[in-house]
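Researcher: Let's do a round of design. I'm pasting the structure tokens now; please hold your answer until I've finished.
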């Protein structure tokens, strides 16, 4: 067992280039080092893999990792090899290897070079592999995606049930089970099946603060998607669709619009799926369009957006799929296109299934409807679903918090609907009740003589969208039942009867019309906390170099350096291997393995652009008036209000703008769009920008003010001039 006095933080920096742990990582690792069984429930992107990778590196013996997906195994092994200078530090054994490759793996394992050995559960059961593991010291067993063990889990794999007996056959060692999703029932099933009921349980927050959640009305969705992707060129994204047909159609549409996209679904042959996945990982394509039902197994940390063309069947599915965005802590935009017609399609798919299964499915769908149509903070609703409280009033990172939708008092409308439903009976679907209330005559209405009912046209003051929202709210509140056996028929229940007698306030949110208007605007919503870059030009150049180096090593680009590391380089400008080792997420091994080409490029860039690096500024700050530069760069990078930056340094706004002008004129690129967008009218900002781009003969503020007129303040002109210099000059 490892020396208990080992400095974990030093090992974290040495092996992985990070200076601090995330969430419960440190406590989990210490528990493993103490030789105790460990159960880890941590959300996607929370850093589960490090919980077993780091202890594997510092403990004696080989850690055996059991993982269900070949693609995930390959990604993790490639990542470990990139971090280490030791050839053979990590290997996998699964059906994708030939005999010579397996021989190479076994040689490395028996020689002691290998610290992590990954198995598919099917491969672990083979006698040859059991014999291999009996010959070595197993430091611990890690069962990744542990929910696959449980029949109650969302991705049950029967072969996972055989893991405990095989471990007993090989030789006991501490167990760590990890999953990103488990209800208490699933958790207990996992622990019982693995014989680890006494395990220490670590449950992390499900909050992903860097993700931006947004629901849009499904109005002209393909056009909206194309528009969004084209405003985020070069960023990786995943689009989920309900059917294979829609996947193919949408991928074809994106290609026709010069967007690099490929399809991915279970109906394709394995070779095509693998090729398309590799193209996505290697950044040969920007977008993968996939079916919701198919687990992609992609461990790509720099997915910048996840779009649901069709809404998922459950909030758990939604959380899992949106969780593939921003796993590196950078920006992640989660957009879902919602139409109640999609819910009705999903309900229809449930027909023919056992009644109990339909009942569960209906409840899950109602949770999804409630989430989509709510005006409450989306983060608060999601975390509540997973049993976690979010005490902050507004997350400022979802559409409901940033663009509150109008709420309508609907208590009287709910009562009117319930009374109409009670009178008309439980033989009708939602559309029929709505048509009666708005006085829309058709053959079905006439056949029941409902055109002569007192309820015909009684709700004509509202349109069908309004009444649809009222009825769905009644369903969510449990005032109405939807008949399971006779698909879609509504009936008032005892709670509804009680509501008529003792009503309470109810509000509804009409997202349909609101979002149609919103979709007509140029929407550029913030994308979470993280991902802003000081020098975008350098960042872009570094991405190109990373892609080139990745091709040379036949690795996905993010294995070389992840986006946050490139972002840190674009702020710090490292020009030596020692400086490169201090870049976030790099460490000693990566700096030596891949760093030289990057520091050579950065060194030349700094010379060509005559850039004053942050390190240089710190030295000069004692005697130089511009000692605030590093502080300003970091604050702007974090998108802090310029007024707050000025107040913190006891500067006037004019003096702060002078400091920023010095910074950008020296070649450093600052992005102050976030401030300009909130401080200056969009049309005014565009007029100023066009003046400097097309009409100005110098950068004089006075000349600009004379030309533009009195409606344009000096401060506005200076702000947009800074933006112009950064975008056009630096």
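Researcher: That's everything. Go ahead.
Model: Designed sequence:
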């Amino acid at each position: 067992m490892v020396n208990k006095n080992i400095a974990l933080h030093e090992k974290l920096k040495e092996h992985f280039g990070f200076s601090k742990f995330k969430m419960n990582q440190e406590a989990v690792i210490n528990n493993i080092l103490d030789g105790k069984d460990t159960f880890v429930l941590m959300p996607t992107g929370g850093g589960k893999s490090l919980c077993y990778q780091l202890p594997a590196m510092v403990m004696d013996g080989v850690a055996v990792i059991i993982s269900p997906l070949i693609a995930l195994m390959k990604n993790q092994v490639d990542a470990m090899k990139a971090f280490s200078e030791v050839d053979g530090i990590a290997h996998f054994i699964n059906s994708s290897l030939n005999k010579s490759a397996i021989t190479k793996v076994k040689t490395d394992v028996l020689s002691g070079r290998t610290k992590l050995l990954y198995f598919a559960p099917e491969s672990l059961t083979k006698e040859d592999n059991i014999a291999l593991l009996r010959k070595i010291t197993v430091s611990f067993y890690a069962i990744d995606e542990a929910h696959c063990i449980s029949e109650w889990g969302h991705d049950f794999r029967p072969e996972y049930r055989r893991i405990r007996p095989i471990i007993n056959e090989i030789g006991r060692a501490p167990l760590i089970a990890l999953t990103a999703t488990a209800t208490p029932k699933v958790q207990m099933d996992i622990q019982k099946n693995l014989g680890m009921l006494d395990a220490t349980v670590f449950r992390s927050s499900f909050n992903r603060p860097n993700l931006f959640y947004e629901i849009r009305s499904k109005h002209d969705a393909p056009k909206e998607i194309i528009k969004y992707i084209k405003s985020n060129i070069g960023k990786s994204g995943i689009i989920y669709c309900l059917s294979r047909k829609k996947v193919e159609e949408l991928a074809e549409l994106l290609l026709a619009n010069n967007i690099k996209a490929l399809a991915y679904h279970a109906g394709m042959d394995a070779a095509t799926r693998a090729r398309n996945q590799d193209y996505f990982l290697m950044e040969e394509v920007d977008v993968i369009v996939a079916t919701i039902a198919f687990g992609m197994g992609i461990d790509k940390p720099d997915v910048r957006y996840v779009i649901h063309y069709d809404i998922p069947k459950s909030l758990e599915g939604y959380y899992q799929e949106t969780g593939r965005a921003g796993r590196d802590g950078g920006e992640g935009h989660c957009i879902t296109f919602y139409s109640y017609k999609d819910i009705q399609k999903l309900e229809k798919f449930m027909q023919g299934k056992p009644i109990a299964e339909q009942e569960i499915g209906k409840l899950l769908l109602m949770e999804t409807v409630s989430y989509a149509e709510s005006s409450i903070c989306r983060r608060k609703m999601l975390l509540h679903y997973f049993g976690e409280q979010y005490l902050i009033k507004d997350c400022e990172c979802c559409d409901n918090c940033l663009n509150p939708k109008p709420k309508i008092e609907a208590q009287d409308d709910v009562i009117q609907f319930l009374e109409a439903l009670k009178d008309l009976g439980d033989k009708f679907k939602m559309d029929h009740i709505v048509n009666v209330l708005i006085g829309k005559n058709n053959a079905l209405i006439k056949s029941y003589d409902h055109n002569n009912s007192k309820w015909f046209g009684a709700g004509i003051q509202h349109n069908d969208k309004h009444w649809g929202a009222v009825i769905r709210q009644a369903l969510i509140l449990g005032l109405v039942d939807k008949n399971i056996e006779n698909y879609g028929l509504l009936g008032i229940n005892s709670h509804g009867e009680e509501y008529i007698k003792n009503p309470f306030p109810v509000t509804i949110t009409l997202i349909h019309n609101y979002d149609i208007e919103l979709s007509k605007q140029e929407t550029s919503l913030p994308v979470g906390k993280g991902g802003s870059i000081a020098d975008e030009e350098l960042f872009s150049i570094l991405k190109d170099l990373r892609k080139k180096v990745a091709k040379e090593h036949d690795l996905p680009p993010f294995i070389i350096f992840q986006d946050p590391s490139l972002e840190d380089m674009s702020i710090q400008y490292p020009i030596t291997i020692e400086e490169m080792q201090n870049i976030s997420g790099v460490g000693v091994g990566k700096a030596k393995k891949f760093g030289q080409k990057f520091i050579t490029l950065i060194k030349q860039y700094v010379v060509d652009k005559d850039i004053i690096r942050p390190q240089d500024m710190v030295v000069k700050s004692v005697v130089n008036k511009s000692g605030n530069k590093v502080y300003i760069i970091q604050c702007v990078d974090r998108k802090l209000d310029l007024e707050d930056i000025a107040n913190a340094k006891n500067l006037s706004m004019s003096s702060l703008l002078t400091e920023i002008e010095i910074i950008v004129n020296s070649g450093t690129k600052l992005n102050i769009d976030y401030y300009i967008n909130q401080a200056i009218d969009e049309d005014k900002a565009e007029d100023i920008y066009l003046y400097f781009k097309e009409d100005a003969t110098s950068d004089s503020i006075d000349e600009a003010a004379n030309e533009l007129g009195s409606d344009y303040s000096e401060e506005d002109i200076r702000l947009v001039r800074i933006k112009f210099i950064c975008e056009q000059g630096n």
